[in-house]
């Protein structure tokens, strides 16, 4: 596996992200609406934006992407693309209000991993799926594309997950883990909930069936797995969705207090805090790659995240105080913050996932997590399904413009 291919797919810098956004904006309306569902294969994904790896790490923010698109197109012309961007926001908000679903996935994964280690048939089937040796051509090609490039088209993710669960009869959590270990955009909310949706856990009793004719059409006839796919896709059994909690409001911070700042890969655009008067005595960067999975994530994923972090530090050089890199333990973070003489730790709010898990373990000093206004406004609307959330998009876009004008 070559590290270069994923870094070629997603050059790890904000400059590259902005260039990709600029190149995509003219295609965000009619072209995207008519062509977005086609998976044309590795190196040919120019019918979609391929911005997810940057959005996921907030090298670009949703607001920046929406602003750029709306500067060139009307809301109705770019409606499909705008909705897709809001799917990310919706999934984050949904999980934020139901954090036990993340813990449930982790437990499910630990259980499935235990089974892989003790059942040789399952282990072989899991290895064949991860290495693209199942004999189902499309599936095998997607497994290889994912490992080699760190990316899969949305439709391929849906087909892949469906075949993994219903044709290969593999535990869904192992599939979600395979994605998280290899995707450059691997995201606790979009990935966990995407897999749960295919499995019939997210929208109870509604599963996603991969059909040979649909794959043939939307891969431009590159694949046609006739008679190879399960025709029966009964929902996977699992716990009911937990009751909904309040959406977080985020913390405020006192910029006059001595502050240690934590920079993490859920938000690599810290300018919004620096512009609010945050002047850190010192900054530590977090490295939670090891917490993504029970197994070792792909080298590409680690390399991509480190390079984005280095790019972020370079962009904010001179504004972060003395920088310590790569902290991954709560005790070390608390010790470091005390040593630099901080009265408080400030960090951009980390949504449910490995960074938030680590931050919850930090004790001894207050850890303040300001939440971006975009998230604070949107997340509370993720109360039910996306279709209800979607109705709020015009109002959210209006508020976004208001925020900009303020
Ligand atoms: C099983 C499964 C697992 C997934 N895992 C992830 C993941 O780990 N990380 C991740 O970022 N996305 C995930 N997705 C969502 C989606 O597939 C990717 O965001 C999208 O394919 C990224 O490619 P793009 O940037 O070219 O998308 P585009 O089609 O150009 O869409 C524009 C943006 O909208 C957002 N978006 C589009 N579709 C979705 C969606 N279904 N859910 C949430 N946001 C969306 C992304 O931010 C994307 O960059 C998953 C979907 C499925 C079905």
From TrEMBL:
Q: How is the cofactor bound?
A: Binds 1 FAD per subunit.
Q: Which cofactor does it need?
A: FAD
Task: Kindly give the InterPro entries that the UniProt entry links to this protein.
Answer: Crypto/Photolyase_FAD-like_sf, Cryptochr/Photolyase_FAD-bd, Cryptochrome/DNA_photolyase_1
Which Pfam families does the entry mention?
FAD_binding_7
Q: Which domain of life is it from?
A: Bacteria
Q: Does the keyword Zinc-finger apply?
A: no
Q: Which residues bind FAD?
A: 32, 81, 84-91, 185-187
**Molecular function per GO:** deoxyribodipyrimidine photo-lyase activity; DNA binding; FAD binding
Q: Which residues form the Cryptochrome/DNA photolyase FAD-binding domain?
A: 81-215
Q: Which UniProt keywords apply?
A: FAD, Flavoprotein, Lyase
Q: In Gene Ontology terms, what is a biological process of this protein?
A: response to light stimulus
Protein name, UniProt field: Deoxyribodipyrimidine photo-lyase
Which organism is this protein's natural source? Roseivivax lentus
